[in-house]
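URGENT: need a sanity check before tomorrow's submission.

F., can you look over the Response regulator record below? I want to be sure the sequence and structure line up before it goes out.
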Amino acid sequence: MIRVLIADDQGMVRTGFTTFLGTQPDIEVVAEAVNGQEAVTRAAELAPDVVLMDVRMPVMDGLEATRRILAGTATRVLILTTFDLDDYVYEALRAGASGFLLKDASAQQLVEAVRVVAAGEALLAPSVTRRLIAEFARLGGPRAPTVKRLAELTGRETEVLALMAQGLSNGEIAGRLVVSEQTVKTHVGRVLAKLGLRDRAQAIVFAYDTGLVRPGD
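Structure tokens as predicted:
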């Protein structure tokens, strides 16, 4: 059972999402929160698998709440946004969010997003990835402390990380490297474990931080 916490200051949004998710046999909404501070408190009490987190909320915004929730738990955060070019995209990924979901997503998209994030995958729309890449281009060169950590990876693992950062799925990476999808999945797992990364979203951030992949590659 995937346990979900919904954090949004709009009652209609919370009710709608709770209703959608409540019809699924593998998902349980364990609590709702009306602001970031309440989300942090409820997450600490209940340790949900996934938090659906709005960004713009009173008392404490969703970004700060995300940082605090992810500081010491295995909970994953899926950011709710009104539009896919939200100014908070880069900062939310930095905070450790596993992806983004538009508030006008269909019921099926909502359910699938929760399942994807709960399974440890990242949920990044192509438009979000493009914005992330543009932000790295604006910030400039690689960060030295993280570059050294690349040495922990094998050549094939480094190759897989680079392809992940370009937005390729496991199936697409398998086709590019002419290996099985299961082999790619194994490599991805090792990359995340060696680098201490939560999921593919953080892997993308890491790859650009180190200069392994650069905007335009």
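My own read: The chain has a mean pLDDT of 83. Residues 181-195 form the longest helix (15 residues). If you see anything odd, call me.
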